[in-house]
């Protein structure tokens, strides 16, 4: 380890893949950029919005489908346009995508889709490269931040050359890896203007049929373009036992692991440049396809008569990092599997994500955990954490907005055995507007018996606090129209009497409302209206502490699940009934506490008081 | 990027920084990266964060050298492990090369899952690290920061602790720290300098 003295002059930019895509969008003269937040893609639009650029409009859209449609509209009038989403977002946008590929685009239209390979923050793992095949669109796969910039720039040109959208497929390990980036020269693009052309833009069968035929012709041209693309290249190597075919970040892992092997690096991976693959196959003992998640390239190579190995050797899920690749390749070559010497893996407690100190959802889940005989249909957001300890108060989580339809289906499908069970749906403000509203409409129209908890914390919490139509602010933090959830639910058919707006920190009020509404056999909505603790407008209140002498160790406060409550001592007592009860005496980390008062409420001995005595206790309700 | 050259593995420095969401692990690694960049190294930095903003495990991988390919550090390949939390350092000890160095904050952050009694926190995580034959430097970064008047300075204390364990002079890192924090609030410049030196001294004295 010694300092590099003859290193080249420092490159100024050190960017994540997401930031590099954002810079490329700006430098490409893009005019409209839209997205719905979703890990790992969120930072692309955040980066674009952080530094407003003359001539570039950015927005958080209410969902991914809308973001793609906004981008298409801009493309129709001849502007360069962009939208970004996570992998499951493209499922939502797919309806639009599958027809946009028929109309094609006018101004360069680029769709960045980020796959959460390894599922760090997603409900599934899926391979967005399929969309290139399904929608007959070119697909680029950067391996690092520099390529994210280069390919996002090139995608606009490619889109205009072939008059179709171009998909840039990212993965978590590209989005969130920072590396050096040398940007190109920014360009300007004036919209060419809207040209009325119903045969192109009005997709009725008579207009669509000829365009579908030309889509297949486009496939041939795109394959020729892939064969000639600078993003598809051979990296020569002297060890000819295995030739690697890689796409996306797997290239870096392969080069790291097998520096002497020849590698076909595919950046413009769909359509697959078969001639290059065939040329490599002829020069090596065997081909191994290293692609993250599904065996797409492998299947296509085999279909073209090119023998290769792939998912029979490598796992179909998770990242193909060197610690996965090296042993798999050693086994393939019949060599001993070796790994670097290191200390044994330590088996420690898990540290799953938790809700924040004073999170308004804590009160909701404390309450839901107390309700008996209930099925809780959940949704996507921070409140999905309610499925975990100590609450265990979420029974399903499928996709954005699914809490509504699933709850209605549970209601309509239940038999005698579930006759007395209440059906509750839990959904956040942003998820509700993304895809939940239609589900609620379905519930009211079809007279479902569902109690809906609409948790309005005025932000998209899980992705880091982005604005939404309920924030009253736009992507730049400027004042914007704010949706009125009570009125919205009423307009969707919920009776006014069945809509309540409550403070989620008032546990007895919440519990009572929930008990009453679940007993009434019609749709009702309980809206909780306290903001996320992570947003700028959250106001902390004076913190609490525990009077140690008063704490009886009942541990009721621990059921709130607040990370600021810590156990100081454990004990157990034998009750007169002969039952042994575990005790946990607690303290509150006053520096972390923001005084929400949730833990005060279930504390039977009133041992929790304000850290500074001059502040009165806010909610001194007895245990519910 | 060189198209054919053998990867000169030995020139790469691998630093793994670990802790929990909200502790400043990513910011500290970012500053470390800026220091390496200022010397002209190729640098890659990657996080395994998950839903880290919610108190989960965070690891930040920093690799620098002449040319860095994969951004990920493999088990047994880290030159330096920096633990912002005691048990987290133990959790990632297998990432270190044999007899490599761990710099660890003795401060503990006990999650609700332990508090409600489902799991236990290791009794002596620092002892656990020493038992693995690793060179351990343990110090109370949280207290050092609190003594200076702001727990948030813990981040800079940790950076100071690393300063004499890097393949470049400590001042390069200090400059990067001051550039980051001083640019935002000049008043914090002196405090950060002090926090940095406290971290440095804590390791030197250990």
From TrEMBL, chain B:
Matches recorded under Pfam families: POR (PF01558)
InterPro entries on file: IorB_Oxidoreductase (IPR052198), Pyrv/ketoisovalerate_OxRed_cat (IPR019752), Pyrv_flavodox_OxRed_cen (IPR002869)
Annotated ranges, domain Pyruvate/ketoisovalerate oxidoreductase catalytic: 21-200
Residue ranges crossing the lipid bilayer per the database entry: none
Entry keyword set: Oxidoreductase, Pyruvate
Keyword Oxidoreductase tagged: yes
A GO term, aspect molecular function: oxidoreductase activity, acting on the aldehyde or oxo group of donors
Highest taxon, organism lineage: Bacteria
Alphabetical list of NCBIfam families matching this protein: PRK06853.1-2 (NF005322)
Protein name: Indolepyruvate oxidoreductase subunit beta
Organism from which the protein derives: Thauera phenolivorans
């Amino acid at each position: 380890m010694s300092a590099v003295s003859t290193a080249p002059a420092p490159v100024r930019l050190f960017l994540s893949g997401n930031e590099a895509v954002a810079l490329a969008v700006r430098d490409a003269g893009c005019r409209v950029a839209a997205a719905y937040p979703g890990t790992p893609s969120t930072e692309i639009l955040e980066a674009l919005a952080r530094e407003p650029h003359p001539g570039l409009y950015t927005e958080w859209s209410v969902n991914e489908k809308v973001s793609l449609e906004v981008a298409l509209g801009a493309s129709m009038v001849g502007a360069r346009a962009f939208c970004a989403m996570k992998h499951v977002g493209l499922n939502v946008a797919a309806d639009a995508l599958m027809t946009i590929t028929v109309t094609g685009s006018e101004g360069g239209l680029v769709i960045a889709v980020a796959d959460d390979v390894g599922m760090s923050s997603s409900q599934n793992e899926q391979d967005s490269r399929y969309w290139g095949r399904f929608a007959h669109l070119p697909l680029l796969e950067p391996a690092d931040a520099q390529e994210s910039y280069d390919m996002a720039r090139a995608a606009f040109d490619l889109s205009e050359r072939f008059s179709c959208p171009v998909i840039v497929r990212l993965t978590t390990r590209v989005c969130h890896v920072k590396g050096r980036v040398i940007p190109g020269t920014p360009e300007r693009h004036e919209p060419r203007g809207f040209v009325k052309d119903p045969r192109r833009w009005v997709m009725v069968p008579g207009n669509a049929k000829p365009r579908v035929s030309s889509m297949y012709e486009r496939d041939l041209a795109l394959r020729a373009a892939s064969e000639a693309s600078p993003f598809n290249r051979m990296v020569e190597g002297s060890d000819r036992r295995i030739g690697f075919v890689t796409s996306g970040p797997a290239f870096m892992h392969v080069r790291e692991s097998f520096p002497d092997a020849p590698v076909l690096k595919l950046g413009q991976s769909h359509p697959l440049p078969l001639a290059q693959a065939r040329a490599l196959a002829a020069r090596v003992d065997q081909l191994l396809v290293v692609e993250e998640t599904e065996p797409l390239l492998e299947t296509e190579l085999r279909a073209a008569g090119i023998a290769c190995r792939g998912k029979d050797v490598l796992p179909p899920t998770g990242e193909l990092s060197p610690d996965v690749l090296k042993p798999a390749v050693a086994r393939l070559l019949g060599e001993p599997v070796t790994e670097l010497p290191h200390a044994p893996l330590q088996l420690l407690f898990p540290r799953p994500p938790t809700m924040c100190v004073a999170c308004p959802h804590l009160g909701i889940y404390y309450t839901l955990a107390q309700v008996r005989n209930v099925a809780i249909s959940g949704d996507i957001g921070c409140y999905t954490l309610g499925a975990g300890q100590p609450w265990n108060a979420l029974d399903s989580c499928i996709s954005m907005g699914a809490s509504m339809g699933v709850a209605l289906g549970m209601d309509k499908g239940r038999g005698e055995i579930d006759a007395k069970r209440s059906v509750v749906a839990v959904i956040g403000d942003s998820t509700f507007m993304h895809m939940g509203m239609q589900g609620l409409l379905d519930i009211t129209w079809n007279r479902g018996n569902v109690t809906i908890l609409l948790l309005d914390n005025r932000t998209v919490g899980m992705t880091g606090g982005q604005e939404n139509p309920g924030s009253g602010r736009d992507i730049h933090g400027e004042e914007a129209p704010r949706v009125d959830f009570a009125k919205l639910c009423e307009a969707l058919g919920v009776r006014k009497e069945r809509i309540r707006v409550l403070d989620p920190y008032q546990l007895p009020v919440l519990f009572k409302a929930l008990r009453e509404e679940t007993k009434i056999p019609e749709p009702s909505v309980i809206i909780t209206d306290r903001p996320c603790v992570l947003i700028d407008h959250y106001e902390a209140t004076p913190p609490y502490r525990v009077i140690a002498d008063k704490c009886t160790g009942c541990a009721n406060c621990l059921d709130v699940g607040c990370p600021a409550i810590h156990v100081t001592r454990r004990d157990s007592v034998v009750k007169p009934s002969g039952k042994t009860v575990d005790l946990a005496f607690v303290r509150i980390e006053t520096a972390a506490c923001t005084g929400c008062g949730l833990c005060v409420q279930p504390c039977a001995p009133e041992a929790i008081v304000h850290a500074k005595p001059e502040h009165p206790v806010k909610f001194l309700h007895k245990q519910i | 990027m060189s198209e054919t050259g053998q990867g000169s593995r030995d020139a790469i420095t691998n630093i793994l920084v670990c802790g929990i969401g909200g502790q400043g692990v990513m910011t500290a690694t970012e500053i470390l990266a800026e220091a390496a960049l200022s010397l002209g190294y190729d640098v890659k930095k990657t996080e395994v964060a998950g839903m880290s903003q919610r108190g989960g495990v965070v690891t930040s991988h920093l690799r620098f050298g002449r040319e860095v390919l994969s951004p990920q550090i493999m088990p047994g390949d880290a030159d330096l492990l920096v633990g912002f939390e005691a048990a987290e350092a133990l959790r990632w000890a297998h990432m270190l090369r044999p007899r490599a160095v761990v710099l660890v904050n003795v401060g503990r952050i006990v999650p609700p899952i332990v508090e409600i009694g489902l799991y236990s926190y290791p009794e002596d995580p620092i002892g656990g690290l020493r038992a693995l034959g690793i060179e351990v430097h343990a110090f109370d970064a949280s207290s050092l920061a609190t003594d200076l008047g702001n727990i948030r300075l813990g981040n800079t204390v940790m950076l100071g602790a690393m300063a004499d364990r890097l393949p470049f002079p400590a001042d390069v890192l200090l400059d990067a720290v001051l550039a980051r924090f001083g640019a935002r609030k000049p008043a914090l410049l002196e405090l950060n300098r002090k926090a940095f030196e406290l971290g440095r001294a804590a390791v030197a004295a250990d």
